Amino acid sequence: MSRIIIKRLVILGPSYKRTLPFIDGLNIISGVKTSGKSLILRLIDYGLGKSKKFNMDAQRVLDMHCDTIYLEIGIGDEVFTIRRHLKKSVDTVHLYSINLDEIDDYIPLKKSLRELNIFLMRKLQISEVKLVKNKARSADKETQIISFRDIFRYVYIPQHELGTNNFLNNESVFKRQKNPYAFEVICKIIEGNRNEIQEEIAAVENQINKLVNGKNSVYQYLVERDEEDYAELIDKKESIERKINSYNYSKEEVIANSQLNKNKENELYVKLKNQIGNLVDNIYNVRREAGRIQQRIDSKKYLISNYSQEIKELDMTIEANYMLKKWEQVIECPLCNSEVTRTNDEYEIDMSRTELVELKKEKTKKIDFAESIIAIDTEKVRETEIEIDYLTNQKNIFEEAILVFSKKTDVPFLSEINTLNKLIIELQKELEIVKECLRVHRNISEKEKEIKSLDLELIRLKRRLTTLNIEENKKIEIFNFLDTQYKGFMSKFKYNHLEGTYIDRDKYVPFHDYASVFEHESGGLLECMQIAFLCSILSGKQENMAPGHPGFLLLDTISKYLGTIESSESDGEIISDPIVYDEIYRVIIELSSSYQMILVDNTPPEKYKKYIRYIFLDEESGLINLNLNEI
């Protein structure tokens, strides 16, 4: 059973950073108005692909301090981190297949919001459904997709929807029409389409091929640098880091000793050190230039490979045209009854063959040109290697000379620090190259994980082909279970008259007293119906009755329509708001043993304060709290 767990939210700006961890269970965010409580849920929603851009005009403090968010989530045994900008490039996200602490060592995948939707659906093992609908005021058809964002309306209930008739964004005609299908996807009762699934299978197979090609391409990068061994790279990285630490320690010792005036100035020593530093810089620059030339050679080789393949295909086409035989047909003249022989016209074939030969010559010329460039660049690489050897020998000579010199001379601490800094910089450059190779290794590992995940998706889709239509008995079983759960929760919320209380089989919305959640007017009743409905779906996930639900809830301000002060008077026929409020918490706490819940509530009951994760007191001590700045 795949479900999403929100692990950490990071809000980041040029000079501000705050990390908010969450537990797998109940998390309550409490505090006063305008302190940023609801903003946390909105940022989580944004990180999970909400298309609407953040209105920074209404978020003055956030706009002042933050421009990026990171959202770390768990799905099954995997952890992912999503990075998304708040002000620019808002239509894309960067996805890391690793936790927040390790993202610097990984190359992220850039995805559109649509691609993020597909990724989340696949990780949750949910299939998108395409609907063919009539366009408004037109006989034309259009395709609508039931995506992760449609299902997410059954996860995140914003403050302006909870306890109102705008539940599930019902006031939006576009979203209202999609909600029943989203419910069917959640409960897996929607009927599939064979062609659709076959198209999806083809798309997954294409994506696997693309990933395999991409993996092979980046692996070639490692082959060319003789860095295929991951363990060897790790050892190299640790060795360089040890050297850097050793030089840093030596630098600290020099600074400490300098206070005792143990070093004396020596002009020759400084000159030798400067020479070594210049040689180190020159070696680095020559190596970088050699790398650029090698990349150019690799690019030309790739072009030659493509041209050679095209020539091979042209040869086959020319040969096929050459083998075409002229056909003859004997026909009888209807006027004189004499026989006439008719042959096909070879002009087009001859012209086609001529054009193909010309095209082949053109490709051959391009290969010759590319090979001439490769020859020139190969010679340049050889020359750079000779130059590197020469510079390295020079550096070794100077280092040997300065080693002998330093044994006889007390040197100034400034010169020593300068030398150590040069050595540290050189090692840091080497370390960055090693880290880049490690990132490529991890990128290959991520691609392999994604290929494995898509292989499983392929198996699931092929299995789905064999079980397209859900049995009617299974549908009845699902609704019986959800109805029982819904009535049970409504009863706990002190609505004991359950006649007319059910989940409608056609509209897939909760009813009470024969009226739907969109028809009642009492905010308290609406909130109870909505929470009971969502909790029944969440209970159904555990029993495989709602396997398509992401498996967590975000509820904003559950005390909005319920009184929280207990009255001494009680009447069996009158619902006491504080008692209902307490029962809602009991239900949520019970479900939070299996699922994550993140609630915004101004003043939760005293006995549930142990579940409070964050308390925001005012704007300055709210979500943006400069006293908790991690930078």
TrEMBL record:
Keywords of this entry: Coiled coil
Matching InterPro entries, A to Z? P-loop_NTPase
Coiled coil start-end: 187-275, 444-471
Which Gene3D superfamilies does the record match to this protein?
P-loop containing nucleotide triphosphate hydrolases
Name used for this protein in its record: Rad50/SbcC-type AAA domain-containing protein
